Amino acid sequence: MKLIIRLLLLLLSQYSLVGCYKISPLPIGPSIGYFKIDLNGKDWNKTYNNAYQTVESALIPYSGAYPCIEDHLDVFTELFSPEGYLRQSLYLTKIPKTVGTSKIIAAPAFHCDETDPVYSELYTITQDGDVVGDVYQPLEGADNYLHVEIYNSKTGEIKGTFQMTMVKTRDGGTPALPDTLRFTNGRFHTRFIRDYH
């Protein structure tokens, strides 16, 4: 009986260790195209030396997080540390599926109004890439806009430019960025995935 209990404890301890252990911090998803922007006058993409960035776009179906009636188009980018840990995530959500210019506003929690313009949020990530730190949203009244230059529903291609000023709306501990972020010269060119999981 003691042997069985010891074996069960050994199995449980191994299971709990495996649950927390990451084989690799590298992202699993694809990175398609580019996403470049200046943050407070410096190249945001080079925030971390010897690090890397991913760029993705997708048509996102209805979900509890953004209960939009129609599938909405998102473009998002993530910056990783030299060790491969996620450090920042920037989202442009509900991009119009047409060429033109739209305002960018703060992303409301668990809400989507089809008449709203583009939503955006930036998260800083701490520890080993899985704990949300500070949260930033577009400053109301600032000149925040996104311009879609190319949109092709058949090929999934989307290209555009944007600028926005963001302010910290949630303090997540040791600050990685200043309280106010001025993003200028934003440009992206990517291809969206139809069935995002």
UniProtKB/TrEMBL annotation:
This is Lipoprotein. It comes from Dyadobacter linearis. It comes from the Bacteria.
